[in-house]
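Researcher: If only I could read backbone structure tokens as easily as an amino acid sequence. Walk me, if you will, through where the backbone shape changes along the chain. I have put the entry right below:
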Amino acid sequence: MIGRTEYHNVSGTRCATDFVELPSILMEHFAASPQVLSFFAQHHQTGKPIPPDVIKAQLAQSNMLEALDTHAQIVMAILDQQYHSLTSAQLRDPSFNSTRMLHDLQNRTGMIPAVEGTSWQVQFSHLYGYGATYYSYLFDRAIAGKVWSTLFTDGPDGALSREGGEVFKDKVLKWGGGKNPWEMVGDVIGGREGEIVSKGDTKSMETVGSWLAPP
């Protein structure tokens, strides 16, 4: 609906897979904003908005295991890379076992040891449907957080900033896959960091990675 591309095959989420999850992950920030919640999170009988202390407690609880979730996402991204780095000869090798590869990785880098007798990877479609790009979830989580803090945390309107929404629409959403995504993100962030990110090189990746790092 927002796309203004010349060709439909580059509109909306028809863009680089690295950036395809950015809009939806950004929406998670809005869904957790007290300002936004006050519009619809109401008591089913009294109609009173949800109390701020309840929102605060819920957010604290939901973020309690955020580090563990992030670590699990990293392990899955590594596994995805390992699977897609295999050669055809390795895949034909009778000794190859995708479950063993997962368990070895889990036991080596995971927070929780692998459970023998389970083959979780065969029912996780993103490992083969995304094709070595599962890392994009963490990548876009970092960018979404930066976009949120840049456009929707300062000023009196905060999450309800019309100006911030217009900037994100005009500089990102309307272009879909019709413009270099690195340049779009850099344009939104602005400043020195924006200049670095817009180049789309190794330094750009390091900068985006720093946005996800804990303070």
Observations:
- The CA atoms of residues 141 and 169 lie 18 Å apart.
- The chain has a mean pLDDT of 92.
- The chain is about 55% helix and 0% strand.
- The two ends are 37 Å apart (CA to CA).
